[in-house]
Amino acid sequence: MTTLQILGAKPETRRAWLEHNTGHSLEAAADAAFAPEEVRGKIENLVGAVHVPLGIAGPIRVNGDHAQGSYYVPFATTDGTLVSTYQAGMRAITEAGGANAHLLGDSLDITPCFMLASARDAIVFSRWLSDHLEELKEVAAESTAHGRLVELHTHVFGRRLFARFVFTTGDAMGMNMVNLAVDQICRYAIRTAGCERYYLRCNYSSDKKPAAINLFRPYGKEVAIDLTLPGGVVETYLGVSARDLLEFIATGRLGAMQAGALGMNAHFATGSRRSSSPAARTSRRWSTPASGSATPSSPARTTCTCSRGSRTSSSGPSAVGPTCQRNANASPCLTAAARAPRRSSPRSSRPPSSAASSPSPPRSPTDASSKHTGKTANDTSLRQPRRQPAAERQERSTT
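Given the sequence above, the corresponding structure tokens read:
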């Protein structure tokens, strides 16, 4: 059986042919959820279908011009932790009130290149295309029921003319319909206005390629999204402080500039996380009073014990931290009872300089000032200079 004989064959015939030529069976691919006739025109040389694990993330709250509500997002992937990290981000967005989405543009373009005899001819042909835009729209409508030609932008490069045809494609991605429509336009223009030849593609539209043009013109649907993430939501559901998140964004931009990348976005979805789950992070931040447990959903009375003094808040988890400005470089302070326990055995702040020196008092397990200075508030060295031994004072006075 030759290759030409299998082009019109049924999927089971192609699988048998592949098994005969490769020694590997594709019977697992025979289990498809669709009939071969349903995908005719969408794939060639069909042999079956494959199964990919499907996960679900959400809900994510969207406050859009066209979409309003909570939505679930399917992920077909074998990339472990991918769904869970997107889930954390969606939970944070939803807890913050949702993402505000706005549609700025909806278009798809293709740029053929027309070859003319000279630059003057290219300029004349460019003007002809612009003057006959309405006529070209009718030609495009003959090949597609959903695509609509809406704009035309011409660029002359020597004797070459790049003509960027901009379409709307409805709910479809529309690349095939746009290709067919523009091919009809090019054929019509050559017959009517005269041209040596044309290339349907010239890389100016940069489809599936990183290019600067993709940063300032829509290619498909262009959207603007904004949201505000409170510091408490960032810490609870993303596992980092707001300051650390901004620091990572700045680091990603610097790395992108040094690498010469197009676009300065940092990829948060598969970034590292400080702990295994939001529950584990919450348990380290909230104390459990005698009357019950304090959780992010049940406001509790918590106390900040940083070096600036104690403050009390009853606004729940999201209020802890922002009310305390410990210093410019520190993350929001935590409650005293939720701090990690320290060793309770006494130890000296420094070794004695002489036999007359006495060891420092034990470190207090709930003393927050030790986090900044390495010493405790009960340490006498924080409040007064070290007293000199009597023998050393006598020696100084004699000298």
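The longest strand covers residues 99-110. Try to locate this feature in the token string yourself.
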